[in-house]
C-alpha cells in the first residue's frame, strides 16, 4: 500500500519521496519500517472512519523521526515555541514526539497545525484531541508489527470506535508506567484527567 501513497503540498512542502529519504538516513531499519507501518495503519483508520487520510499519513510517517536523536539535538530547538525544559527529565520516550514535530517544520516545511500536534502528542496523548492525533496515537500502538499483551484488544476496540480504543490506550499507558515503577510525565496525567472528565460529562 505504501508504494501507492502520494501527498499533495497542501500540508507540507516536502514530497513523500523527500520524507522517505530523510527517514532512511536518520533511522535504523527497524524504526524506519515501523514508521511505514504506522503511516499505513493511520491511513487505513482514516479511510475507515472517513477522516483526513493525508493528514493521518504524514503524521504517522513522521511521528518517530526524532526517535533516535540525541539530547544535544533536542537542545538546538530550545528556541521553538512550547519547548519544555522538563522534557530532559523524562527521556527520549517523551521528547522525541515534540522534537519530530519541530524538525518537520524546520526541515520539511510542515505548515499544518493538526499534523504538527499529532506528531508532537503521539506519545502522551492530547488534552484537546483532534481526529489526526487520535489516529496516530492508535496507529503507533497497534500497527501490524506490534505484539504485546493488550494489543489485540486495542485492535478490536478500534474496529468498533476510535474513542473506545483511545480510552483503552490512555489507561494502558499509565498502567504500564505504574507497573514498571516509572515516573509519569505531568501532561500524561493531565490528558487522562481531561479525557475522564469529558467522558463523564457525555455519559
Features:
mainly alpha; Hypothetical protein af1432
Question: Can you give a write-up of this model?
Answer:
By secondary structure, the protein is an all-alpha fold. The chain has a single domain, classed as Hypothetical protein af1432. 63% of the residues lie in helices and 0% in strands. The protein has ten helices and no strands. The longest helix has 20 residues, at 29-48.
In short:
The protein is mainly alpha-helical and 203 residues long.
Helix-strand layout with pairing:
Blueprint: H1 16-26, H2 29-48, H3 53-62, H4 71-75, H5 92-108, H6 113-120, H7 131-142, H8 151-160, H9 162-179, H10 186-202
The number of helical elements comes to 10
Distance between the termini: 39 Å
Major sheet: none
Helix content: 55-70%
Order of helices and strands: HHHHHHHHHH
Contiguous runs where pLDDT drops below 50 for at least 5 residues = none
Question: Would you tell me the overall average pLDDT?
Answer: 95
- Structural class, please? mainly alpha
Strand content: under 5%
Radius of gyration: 16 Å
CATH architecture label name? Orthogonal Bundle
Protein name: bis(5'-nucleosyl)-tetraphosphatase (symmetrical)
EC number: 3.6.1.41
Keywords: Hydrolase, Iron, Metal-binding, Nucleotide-binding
GO molecular function: bis(5'-nucleosyl)-tetraphosphatase (symmetrical) activity; metal ion binding; nucleotide binding
